Amino acid sequence: MDIFVHALIETIVRSEAELISGELIIEGRLIDASNATLYGVIKNSIEDQFPVVYKPIAGERPLWDFPDGNLASREVAAFLVSKEVGFNCVPTTVLRDGPFGVGAVQEWIDIKDDTDVIAIAQSNARAIRNMALFDVVINNTDRKFGHILPVDDTTILGCDHGVAFHEEFKLRTVIWQFAGEELNETERHQIENLSRWLEDVGGDVLISFLTDAEITAMRERVIQLLQTGFPYPSQDWPAIPWPPV
Ligand SMILES: Nc1ncnc2c1ncn2[C@@H]1O[C@H](COP(=O)(O)OP(=O)(O)O)[C@@H](O)[C@H]1O
Ligand SMILES: [Mg+2]
Predict the structure, then answer these.
(1) What is the span of the domain harbouring residue 54?
(2) What pTM was computed for the model?
(3) Is 237 within the bounds of a domain?
């Protein structure tokens, strides 16, 4: 394996423990971000440092349509759902303390240069369909092109899952090309596994990050997905985030 490939794999397999244990050092602010979204490094030792995004709860702007809890916790809930049932489309994300208090800390992903994210997002690529399914599960209201991170030809990760998990159906995304399609066999198994996980331990895990009503609503979305497949855009709600980039 050459060094580049090795480095890439390293980038996406940082464990939650690695994100929690090191010192969090702030290096700057992401200027196009809407909340206090900071860029920094986790330093476990001189040799072991890696970049992260840090979103302190104290820097969150209140949102009228997401009055409960905080965005940072939803970012962690999205990571846990992604990891538990094999979507694997969210960089490792934890809730931890930092220089501006407790917040979400997520591994920074270097995206592949010279990729056309708009073309990828509108394609039928497996990783995009995977992301579309994940977004239905978490009821994502903010899947814009800038929240799609192509890592290599087959791996696509997503970021900014703070405004998700609402009890009402509010899916807002730039990926609608699968609307009306049934789940394939693999997807059906995955969603059935998700349903089992939610009944077994998932509900107890997620209650640290979401409300009861949000977890119940996710269970209902899962049942609906199995019955009717990928949903169509809502008629009473803008179906595409603005701006879409
Ligand atoms: N983990 C990450 N890896 C790589 N880029 C990221 C990551 N998280 C955010 N970004 C980049 O930073 C931008 C702003 O971050 P985002 O999470 O969207 O913040 P905000 O909640 O303030 O909108 C994103 O659009 C994306 O380009
Ligand atoms: Mg954003």
Answers:
(1) 3-228
(2) 0.94
(3) no
